Amino acid sequence: MSLCLQARQLACERDDRWLFQGLDLEVRSGEIVRIEGPNGSGKTSLLKILSGQLSDYQGELFWNGAAMNGAREHFLANLLYLGHAPGIKSGLSPLENLAWYQALSGEGGHEEQRLEALERVGLAGFEDVPAGQLSAGQQRRVALARLTLTPRALWVLDEPFTAIDRHGVADLEKQLVAHAQAGGCVLVTTHHELTASPLLRRISLG
Amino acid sequence: MHSSSQSSETNQQVLAVPLREHKGGLMTAVKATLMRDLTLMLRRRGEVLNPLVFFALVITLFPIAISPDPELLAVIAPGLLWVAALLAALLSLDSLFRSDYDDGSLEQLLLAPQPLVALSLAKVAVHWLLTGLPLALMAPILGIILALPAGSYAVLALSLALGTASLSLIGAIGAALTVGLARGGVLLSLLVLPLYIPVLIFGAGAVQAAILGDGVSAHLAILGALLAASLMLAPWAIAASLRISING
Protein backbone atom coordinates (compact mmCIF):
# COMPACT_ATOMS: atom_id res chain seq x y z
CA MET A 1 0.00 0.00 0.00
CA SER A 2 1.58 3.24 -1.04
CA LEU A 3 0.58 6.56 0.36
CA CYS A 4 -0.08 9.81 -1.34
CA LEU A 5 -0.80 13.24 -0.01
CA GLN A 6 -1.94 15.73 -2.59
CA ALA A 7 -2.70 19.41 -2.40
CA ARG A 8 -4.38 21.32 -5.20
CA GLN A 9 -4.33 25.06 -5.64
CA LEU A 10 -3.43 25.77 -2.06
CA ALA A 11 -3.44 29.39 -1.03
CA CYS A 12 -2.94 30.86 2.37
CA GLU A 13 -3.30 34.46 3.43
CA ARG A 14 -1.88 35.93 6.61
CA ASP A 15 -2.37 39.55 7.66
CA ASP A 16 -3.47 40.67 4.17
CA ARG A 17 -0.44 39.03 2.59
CA TRP A 18 -0.47 35.91 0.44
CA LEU A 19 2.03 33.43 1.82
CA PHE A 20 1.56 31.24 -1.23
CA GLN A 21 -0.99 30.94 -3.98
CA GLY A 22 -1.90 28.23 -6.45
CA LEU A 23 0.42 25.71 -4.87
CA ASP A 24 0.13 22.18 -6.26
CA LEU A 25 1.93 19.53 -4.35
CA GLU A 26 2.12 15.76 -4.30
CA VAL A 27 3.99 13.66 -1.81
CA ARG A 28 4.31 9.95 -2.33
CA SER A 29 5.84 6.91 -0.69
CA GLY A 30 9.61 6.87 -0.72
CA GLU A 31 10.09 10.62 -0.91
CA ILE A 32 11.71 13.21 1.28
CA VAL A 33 10.22 16.57 0.46
CA ARG A 34 11.99 19.59 1.79
CA ILE A 35 10.02 22.82 1.96
CA GLU A 36 12.37 25.74 1.47
CA GLY A 37 12.03 29.45 1.81
CA PRO A 38 13.18 32.43 3.83
CA ASN A 39 11.83 33.18 7.31
CA GLY A 40 8.19 34.13 7.20
CA SER A 41 7.57 32.56 3.81
CA GLY A 42 4.90 30.26 5.19
CA LYS A 43 6.75 26.96 5.63
CA THR A 44 5.23 26.27 9.03
CA SER A 45 1.79 27.36 7.84
CA LEU A 46 2.06 25.00 4.89
CA LEU A 47 3.01 22.09 7.14
CA LYS A 48 0.15 22.94 9.47
CA ILE A 49 -2.29 23.02 6.57
CA LEU A 50 -0.98 19.73 5.23
CA SER A 51 -1.22 18.09 8.64
CA GLY A 52 -4.77 19.34 9.05
CA GLN A 53 -4.25 21.85 11.84
CA LEU A 54 -4.99 25.04 9.97
CA SER A 55 -8.34 25.28 8.26
CA ASP A 56 -7.92 28.89 7.18
CA TYR A 57 -6.78 28.22 3.62
CA GLN A 58 -8.08 27.83 0.09
CA GLY A 59 -7.64 24.78 -2.06
CA GLU A 60 -8.12 21.07 -1.60
CA LEU A 61 -6.29 18.27 0.14
CA PHE A 62 -6.43 14.61 -0.79
CA TRP A 63 -5.21 11.60 1.14
CA ASN A 64 -4.72 8.51 -1.02
CA GLY A 65 -7.07 9.96 -3.58
CA ALA A 66 -9.92 10.70 -1.16
CA ALA A 67 -10.86 14.18 -0.01
CA MET A 68 -9.21 14.92 3.33
CA ASN A 69 -12.46 15.65 5.16
CA GLY A 70 -13.65 12.09 4.73
CA ALA A 71 -10.26 10.44 5.19
CA ARG A 72 -9.10 12.44 8.19
CA GLU A 73 -9.21 9.58 10.67
CA HIS A 74 -7.12 7.31 8.47
CA PHE A 75 -4.76 10.20 7.75
CA LEU A 76 -4.22 11.01 11.43
CA ALA A 77 -3.62 7.35 12.22
CA ASN A 78 -0.69 7.43 9.81
CA LEU A 79 0.71 10.86 10.60
CA LEU A 80 3.51 11.82 12.91
CA TYR A 81 3.85 15.57 13.24
CA LEU A 82 6.65 17.26 15.14
CA GLY A 83 6.13 20.98 15.41
CA HIS A 84 8.28 23.94 16.31
CA ALA A 85 7.64 23.31 19.98
CA PRO A 86 8.73 19.78 20.81
CA GLY A 87 5.52 18.99 22.75
CA ILE A 88 7.45 17.68 25.72
CA LYS A 89 6.07 18.35 29.21
CA SER A 90 8.80 19.75 31.42
CA GLY A 91 7.20 18.29 34.55
CA LEU A 92 7.29 14.74 33.23
CA SER A 93 10.26 12.47 32.63
CA PRO A 94 11.14 11.46 29.04
CA LEU A 95 9.67 8.02 29.75
CA GLU A 96 6.37 9.49 30.95
CA ASN A 97 6.24 11.86 28.00
CA LEU A 98 6.70 9.01 25.56
CA ALA A 99 4.19 6.84 27.38
CA TRP A 100 1.55 9.52 26.86
CA TYR A 101 2.30 9.78 23.16
CA GLN A 102 2.12 6.04 22.81
CA ALA A 103 -1.20 5.93 24.62
CA LEU A 104 -2.57 8.82 22.54
CA SER A 105 -2.33 6.64 19.47
CA GLY A 106 -4.23 3.94 21.31
CA GLU A 107 -1.37 1.61 22.21
CA GLY A 108 -0.52 0.71 25.75
CA GLY A 109 3.07 -0.03 24.82
CA HIS A 110 5.85 -1.43 26.95
CA GLU A 111 8.49 0.27 28.99
CA GLU A 112 11.22 -1.65 27.10
CA GLN A 113 10.07 -0.08 23.82
CA ARG A 114 10.30 3.38 25.29
CA LEU A 115 13.70 2.71 26.84
CA GLU A 116 14.93 1.41 23.51
CA ALA A 117 13.61 4.47 21.67
CA LEU A 118 15.31 6.78 24.18
CA GLU A 119 18.56 4.88 23.89
CA ARG A 120 18.39 5.21 20.12
CA VAL A 121 18.31 9.03 20.39
CA GLY A 122 21.19 8.98 22.86
CA LEU A 123 19.23 9.62 26.03
CA ALA A 124 20.07 6.44 27.90
CA GLY A 125 20.51 7.40 31.53
CA PHE A 126 18.13 10.37 31.30
CA GLU A 127 14.93 8.31 31.35
CA ASP A 128 13.71 9.53 34.71
CA VAL A 129 15.08 13.07 34.78
CA PRO A 130 12.28 15.65 34.55
CA ALA A 131 12.35 16.92 30.97
CA GLY A 132 12.52 20.49 32.27
CA GLN A 133 16.04 19.80 33.49
CA LEU A 134 17.18 18.56 30.08
CA SER A 135 18.79 20.86 27.52
CA ALA A 136 16.82 22.12 24.52
CA GLY A 137 18.59 19.62 22.30
CA GLN A 138 17.83 16.75 24.64
CA GLN A 139 14.18 17.74 24.79
CA ARG A 140 14.09 17.76 21.00
CA ARG A 141 15.64 14.28 21.09
CA VAL A 142 12.85 13.06 23.35
CA ALA A 143 10.38 14.27 20.73
CA LEU A 144 12.43 12.59 17.99
CA ALA A 145 12.30 9.31 19.91
CA ARG A 146 8.67 9.15 18.81
CA LEU A 147 9.86 8.50 15.26
CA THR A 148 11.01 5.03 16.29
CA LEU A 149 8.53 4.49 19.10
CA THR A 150 5.33 5.05 17.17
CA PRO A 151 6.01 4.07 13.55
CA ARG A 152 3.94 6.09 11.10
CA ALA A 153 4.16 6.21 7.33
CA LEU A 154 4.00 9.99 6.97
CA TRP A 155 6.37 12.21 8.91
CA VAL A 156 5.75 15.94 8.95
CA LEU A 157 8.70 17.57 10.68
CA ASP A 158 8.97 21.30 11.28
CA GLU A 159 12.61 22.25 11.84
CA PRO A 160 13.53 18.89 13.42
CA PHE A 161 17.24 19.76 13.48
CA THR A 162 16.81 22.72 15.84
CA ALA A 163 19.17 22.52 18.80
CA ILE A 164 20.48 19.09 17.76
CA ASP A 165 24.25 18.61 17.76
CA ARG A 166 26.22 17.65 14.63
CA HIS A 167 26.29 13.99 15.46
CA GLY A 168 22.56 13.93 16.09
CA VAL A 169 21.90 15.75 12.81
CA ALA A 170 23.78 13.07 10.87
CA ASP A 171 21.85 10.31 12.65
CA LEU A 172 18.52 11.99 12.03
CA GLU A 173 19.34 12.50 8.35
CA LYS A 174 20.15 8.81 8.04
CA GLN A 175 16.87 8.01 9.75
CA LEU A 176 14.93 10.18 7.28
CA VAL A 177 16.54 8.48 4.31
CA ALA A 178 15.97 5.02 5.79
CA HIS A 179 12.32 5.88 6.38
CA ALA A 180 11.86 7.00 2.79
CA GLN A 181 13.66 3.90 1.51
CA ALA A 182 11.34 1.74 3.54
CA GLY A 183 8.41 3.29 1.71
CA GLY A 184 7.61 5.99 4.20
CA CYS A 185 7.36 9.62 3.38
CA VAL A 186 8.93 12.69 4.97
CA LEU A 187 7.86 16.32 4.70
CA VAL A 188 10.42 18.54 6.33
CA THR A 189 11.37 22.17 6.72
CA THR A 190 14.89 22.99 7.74
CA HIS A 191 17.55 25.61 7.23
CA HIS A 192 20.10 22.88 7.56
CA GLU A 193 21.56 21.67 4.25
CA LEU A 194 20.41 18.09 3.70
CA THR A 195 22.83 15.74 1.99
CA ALA A 196 21.81 15.20 -1.62
CA SER A 197 19.90 12.00 -2.09
CA PRO A 198 17.90 10.69 -5.04
CA LEU A 199 14.90 10.56 -2.72
CA LEU A 200 15.12 14.24 -1.84
CA ARG A 201 12.86 16.74 -3.55
CA ARG A 202 12.62 20.47 -2.89
CA ILE A 203 9.67 22.80 -2.90
CA SER A 204 10.43 26.50 -2.68
CA LEU A 205 8.16 29.05 -1.14
CA GLY A 206 8.37 32.82 -1.22
CA MET B 1 1.56 6.68 -11.62
CA HIS B 2 -0.89 4.22 -10.24
CA SER B 3 -3.67 5.39 -8.04
CA SER B 4 -3.04 4.30 -4.51
CA SER B 5 -5.80 2.19 -3.15
CA GLN B 6 -6.18 -0.88 -1.04
CA SER B 7 -5.79 -3.02 -4.14
CA SER B 8 -1.99 -2.74 -4.24
CA GLU B 9 -1.57 -5.37 -1.55
CA THR B 10 1.48 -6.80 -3.27
CA ASN B 11 3.53 -3.78 -2.31
CA GLN B 12 2.81 -4.27 1.30
CA GLN B 13 5.62 -6.68 2.12
CA VAL B 14 8.14 -4.18 0.79
CA LEU B 15 6.99 -1.43 3.12
CA ALA B 16 8.59 -1.38 6.52
CA VAL B 17 5.93 1.06 7.65
CA PRO B 18 2.57 -0.16 6.38
CA LEU B 19 -0.39 2.17 6.51
CA ARG B 20 -2.44 1.48 9.58
CA GLU B 21 -6.15 1.54 10.05
CA HIS B 22 -7.35 3.55 12.98
CA LYS B 23 -8.12 1.06 15.70
CA GLY B 24 -9.78 2.14 18.90
CA GLY B 25 -7.70 2.58 21.98
CA LEU B 26 -9.84 5.47 23.16
CA MET B 27 -9.89 4.25 26.75
CA THR B 28 -6.09 3.90 26.77
CA ALA B 29 -5.72 7.45 25.50
CA VAL B 30 -8.25 8.93 27.94
CA LYS B 31 -6.74 7.07 30.88
CA ALA B 32 -3.23 8.14 29.94
CA THR B 33 -4.35 11.77 29.61
CA LEU B 34 -6.03 11.63 33.02
CA MET B 35 -2.92 10.14 34.61
CA ARG B 36 -0.62 12.59 32.84
CA ASP B 37 -2.53 15.67 33.96
CA LEU B 38 -2.91 14.36 37.51
CA THR B 39 0.82 13.66 37.75
CA LEU B 40 1.67 17.07 36.32
CA MET B 41 -0.65 18.92 38.70
CA LEU B 42 0.53 16.97 41.73
CA ARG B 43 4.11 17.89 40.85
CA ARG B 44 3.15 21.55 40.73
CA ARG B 45 1.40 21.65 44.08
CA GLY B 46 1.49 25.45 44.22
CA GLU B 47 -0.94 25.62 41.35
CA VAL B 48 -3.32 23.22 43.06
CA LEU B 49 -3.12 25.06 46.38
CA ASN B 50 -3.51 28.54 44.88
CA PRO B 51 -7.31 28.55 44.50
CA LEU B 52 -7.73 26.88 47.90
CA VAL B 53 -5.57 29.51 49.63
CA PHE B 54 -7.48 32.25 47.83
CA PHE B 55 -10.78 30.74 48.98
CA ALA B 56 -9.60 30.50 52.58
CA LEU B 57 -8.18 34.04 52.62
CA VAL B 58 -11.31 35.66 51.23
CA ILE B 59 -13.58 33.84 53.67
CA THR B 60 -11.41 34.60 56.72
CA LEU B 61 -11.28 38.29 55.83
CA PHE B 62 -15.05 38.78 55.73
CA PRO B 63 -15.84 38.38 59.45
CA ILE B 64 -12.96 40.76 60.18
CA ALA B 65 -14.14 43.38 57.71
CA ILE B 66 -17.90 43.18 58.25
CA SER B 67 -18.73 42.10 61.76
CA PRO B 68 -18.14 39.05 63.92
CA ASP B 69 -21.89 38.97 64.72
CA PRO B 70 -22.91 35.33 64.04
CA GLU B 71 -26.48 36.24 63.15
CA LEU B 72 -25.45 38.71 60.46
CA LEU B 73 -22.78 36.36 59.12
CA ALA B 74 -25.18 33.44 58.97
CA VAL B 75 -27.40 35.41 56.62
CA ILE B 76 -24.68 36.20 54.13
CA ALA B 77 -22.60 33.04 54.57
CA PRO B 78 -24.14 30.94 51.76
CA GLY B 79 -23.67 33.68 49.20
CA LEU B 80 -20.16 34.53 50.39
CA LEU B 81 -18.99 30.94 50.33
CA TRP B 82 -20.40 30.37 46.89
CA VAL B 83 -19.05 33.59 45.39
CA ALA B 84 -15.58 33.00 46.85
CA ALA B 85 -15.53 29.39 45.61
CA LEU B 86 -16.69 30.48 42.16
CA LEU B 87 -13.96 33.11 41.91
CA ALA B 88 -11.36 30.64 43.16
CA ALA B 89 -12.40 28.16 40.46
CA LEU B 90 -12.30 30.95 37.88
CA LEU B 91 -8.75 31.91 38.92
CA SER B 92 -7.42 28.45 38.17
CA LEU B 93 -9.03 28.18 34.73
CA ASP B 94 -6.49 30.15 32.75
CA SER B 95 -3.81 27.51 33.24
CA LEU B 96 -6.06 24.66 32.09
CA PHE B 97 -4.77 24.57 28.50
CA ARG B 98 -2.05 27.24 28.75
CA SER B 99 1.00 25.06 29.38
CA ASP B 100 -0.11 22.53 26.77
CA TYR B 101 -0.44 25.35 24.27
CA ASP B 102 2.98 26.77 25.12
CA ASP B 103 4.95 23.55 24.88
CA GLY B 104 3.22 22.23 21.77
CA SER B 105 1.44 19.28 23.33
CA LEU B 106 -1.93 20.87 22.55
CA GLU B 107 -1.34 20.55 18.81
CA GLN B 108 -0.28 16.95 19.40
CA LEU B 109 -3.53 16.39 21.30
CA LEU B 110 -5.46 17.76 18.33
CA LEU B 111 -3.57 15.51 15.93
CA ALA B 112 -4.15 12.37 17.95
CA PRO B 113 -6.31 9.85 16.11
CA GLN B 114 -8.77 10.00 19.00
CA PRO B 115 -11.83 12.18 19.45
CA LEU B 116 -10.70 15.49 20.91
CA VAL B 117 -14.01 15.68 22.78
CA ALA B 118 -13.08 12.73 24.99
CA LEU B 119 -9.51 13.89 25.56
CA SER B 120 -10.53 17.41 26.55
CA LEU B 121 -13.18 15.99 28.85
CA ALA B 122 -10.40 14.07 30.60
CA LYS B 123 -8.48 17.31 31.10
CA VAL B 124 -11.55 19.04 32.54
CA ALA B 125 -12.17 16.08 34.85
CA VAL B 126 -8.68 16.50 36.30
CA HIS B 127 -9.31 20.22 36.76
CA TRP B 128 -12.46 19.48 38.73
CA LEU B 129 -10.80 16.75 40.79
CA LEU B 130 -8.01 19.09 41.86
CA THR B 131 -9.95 22.37 42.10
CA GLY B 132 -13.71 21.94 42.43
CA LEU B 133 -13.69 18.90 44.66
CA PRO B 134 -11.11 20.27 47.16
CA LEU B 135 -13.05 23.55 47.25
CA ALA B 136 -16.24 21.65 48.06
CA LEU B 137 -14.52 19.64 50.78
CA MET B 138 -12.94 22.74 52.27
CA ALA B 139 -16.11 24.86 52.27
CA PRO B 140 -17.69 23.33 55.42
CA ILE B 141 -14.57 24.19 57.44
CA LEU B 142 -14.74 27.76 56.23
CA GLY B 143 -18.47 27.67 56.96
CA ILE B 144 -17.60 27.42 60.65
CA ILE B 145 -15.71 30.72 60.42
CA LEU B 146 -18.83 32.33 58.98
CA ALA B 147 -21.04 30.78 61.66
CA LEU B 148 -23.01 28.84 59.08
CA PRO B 149 -25.98 27.30 60.90
CA ALA B 150 -25.75 23.58 61.59
CA GLY B 151 -27.56 21.31 59.19
CA SER B 152 -26.46 23.11 56.05
CA TYR B 153 -22.87 21.85 55.90
CA ALA B 154 -23.57 18.72 53.91
CA VAL B 155 -25.73 20.64 51.45
CA LEU B 156 -22.98 23.25 51.07
CA ALA B 157 -20.38 20.61 50.18
CA LEU B 158 -22.76 18.73 47.90
CA SER B 159 -23.97 21.84 46.07
CA LEU B 160 -20.38 22.98 45.55
CA ALA B 161 -19.27 19.56 44.31
CA LEU B 162 -22.11 19.51 41.77
CA GLY B 163 -21.80 23.18 40.90
CA THR B 164 -18.04 23.35 40.45
CA ALA B 165 -18.23 20.46 37.99
CA SER B 166 -20.46 22.64 35.80
CA LEU B 167 -18.15 25.59 36.42
CA SER B 168 -15.12 23.58 35.25
CA LEU B 169 -16.94 22.44 32.11
CA ILE B 170 -18.29 25.88 31.21
CA GLY B 171 -15.06 27.61 32.16
CA ALA B 172 -13.03 25.25 29.99
CA ILE B 173 -14.87 26.60 26.93
CA GLY B 174 -13.62 30.08 27.78
CA ALA B 175 -10.15 28.78 28.60
CA ALA B 176 -10.01 26.99 25.26
CA LEU B 177 -11.14 30.11 23.39
CA THR B 178 -8.58 32.39 25.05
CA VAL B 179 -5.61 30.00 25.19
CA GLY B 180 -4.08 31.53 22.08
CA LEU B 181 -4.15 35.05 23.52
CA ALA B 182 -1.17 36.30 25.48
CA ARG B 183 -3.29 37.94 28.17
CA GLY B 184 -6.58 36.15 27.99
CA GLY B 185 -7.31 36.23 31.72
CA VAL B 186 -9.65 39.21 31.78
CA LEU B 187 -11.42 38.18 28.61
CA LEU B 188 -11.86 34.70 30.03
CA SER B 189 -13.59 36.09 33.13
CA LEU B 190 -15.87 38.30 31.04
CA LEU B 191 -16.76 35.37 28.80
CA VAL B 192 -17.63 32.81 31.42
CA LEU B 193 -18.96 34.85 34.35
CA PRO B 194 -22.40 35.41 32.77
CA LEU B 195 -22.66 31.67 32.18
CA TYR B 196 -21.77 31.02 35.82
CA ILE B 197 -24.76 33.01 37.14
CA PRO B 198 -27.38 30.21 36.99
CA VAL B 199 -25.03 27.83 38.84
CA LEU B 200 -24.38 30.51 41.46
CA ILE B 201 -28.08 31.24 41.97
CA PHE B 202 -29.10 27.63 42.50
CA GLY B 203 -25.95 26.72 44.41
CA ALA B 204 -26.29 29.51 46.96
CA GLY B 205 -30.04 28.95 46.90
CA ALA B 206 -29.61 25.34 47.97
CA VAL B 207 -27.58 26.33 51.04
CA GLN B 208 -30.03 29.10 51.87
CA ALA B 209 -32.90 26.65 51.64
CA ALA B 210 -31.09 24.24 53.95
CA ILE B 211 -30.64 27.01 56.54
CA LEU B 212 -34.31 27.96 56.34
CA GLY B 213 -35.29 24.32 56.63
CA ASP B 214 -36.95 24.21 53.21
CA GLY B 215 -36.50 21.29 50.87
CA VAL B 216 -33.17 21.39 49.09
CA SER B 217 -33.86 18.69 46.57
CA ALA B 218 -35.28 21.10 43.98
CA HIS B 219 -32.15 23.24 44.04
CA LEU B 220 -29.85 20.26 43.93
CA ALA B 221 -31.89 18.73 41.11
CA ILE B 222 -31.47 21.89 39.06
CA LEU B 223 -27.72 21.91 39.80
CA GLY B 224 -27.66 18.31 38.62
CA ALA B 225 -29.59 19.24 35.51
CA LEU B 226 -27.15 22.07 34.79
CA LEU B 227 -24.29 19.62 35.18
CA ALA B 228 -25.95 17.11 32.86
CA ALA B 229 -26.51 19.80 30.25
CA SER B 230 -22.91 21.04 30.51
CA LEU B 231 -21.61 17.48 30.34
CA MET B 232 -23.54 16.96 27.14
CA LEU B 233 -22.76 20.22 25.39
CA ALA B 234 -19.56 21.68 26.82
CA PRO B 235 -17.09 19.00 25.60
CA TRP B 236 -18.07 19.70 22.00
CA ALA B 237 -17.76 23.44 22.54
CA ILE B 238 -14.35 22.94 24.20
CA ALA B 239 -13.08 20.82 21.31
CA ALA B 240 -14.33 23.33 18.74
CA SER B 241 -12.81 26.23 20.69
CA LEU B 242 -9.45 24.48 20.88
CA ARG B 243 -9.47 24.00 17.12
CA ILE B 244 -10.24 27.70 16.66
CA SER B 245 -7.43 28.70 19.02
CA ILE B 246 -4.89 26.46 17.30
CA ASN B 247 -5.93 28.00 14.00
CA GLY B 248 -5.10 31.49 15.24
Can you walk through the features of this model?
Chain B: Its main location: membrane. Chain B: It comes from Halomonas campaniensis. Chain B: Required for the export of heme to the periplasm for the biogenesis of c-type cytochromes. The complex is a heterodimer of chains A (206) and B (248). With 206 residues, chain A is an alpha/beta fold. Chain A is 33% helix and 27% strand. Chain A has helices at residues 43-50, 68-77, 94-104, 111-120, 136-149, 166-181; strands spanning 4-14, 17-28, 31-36, 58-63, 66-67, 79-82, 154-158, 185-189, 200-204. In chain A, strand 1 (4-14) and strand 2 (17-28) form a beta hairpin. Helix content of chain B is 78%, strand content 0%. The radius of gyration of chain B is 22 Å and the shape is elongated. Mean pLDDT of chain B is 90; it is low at 1-14. Chain B has one domain. Chain B has 248 residues and is mainly α. At the A-B interface, helix 2 and helix 3 of A face helix 1, helix 4, helix 5 and helix 9 of B.
How does the SSE layout of this entry go?
The complex is a heterodimer of chains A (206) and B (248).
Chain A (H helix, E strand, L loop, with lengths): L3 E11 L2 E12 L2 E6 L6 H8 L7 E6 L2 E2 H10 L1 E4 L11 H11 L6 H10 L15 H14 L4 E5 L7 H16 L3 E5 L10 E5 L2
Parallel strand pairs in A: 3-8, 3-9, 6-7, 7-8
Antiparallel strand pairs in A: 1-2, 1-4, 4-5
Chain B lengths: L25 H18 L1 H21 L4 H24 L1 H9 L1 H7 L4 H30 L7 H26 L6 H28 L4 H31 L1
Helix pairs in contact in B: 1-6, 2-3, 2-6, 3-6, 3-7, 3-8, 6-7, 6-9, 7-8, 7-9, 8-9
Shape of chain A: globular
The end-to-end distance of chain A, rounded to whole angstroms, is 34 Å
SSE order of chain A in H/E notation? EEEHEEHEHHHEHEE
- Report the radius of gyration of chain B as a whole number of Å: 22 Å
Q: Please state the average pLDDT score of chain B.
A: 90
DSSP helical segment count of chain B: 9
Structural class of chain B: mainly alpha
Helix content of chain B: over 70%
The level 1 CATH classification of the largest domain in chain A is: Alpha Beta
Largest interface: A-B, 49 and 50 residues
The total domain count of chain B is 1
Coarse shape of chain B:
elongated
Organism (chain A): Halomonas campaniensis
GO biological process, one term (chain A): cytochrome complex assembly
GO molecular function, one term (chain A): ATP hydrolysis activity
Domain ABC transporter (chain A): 5-205
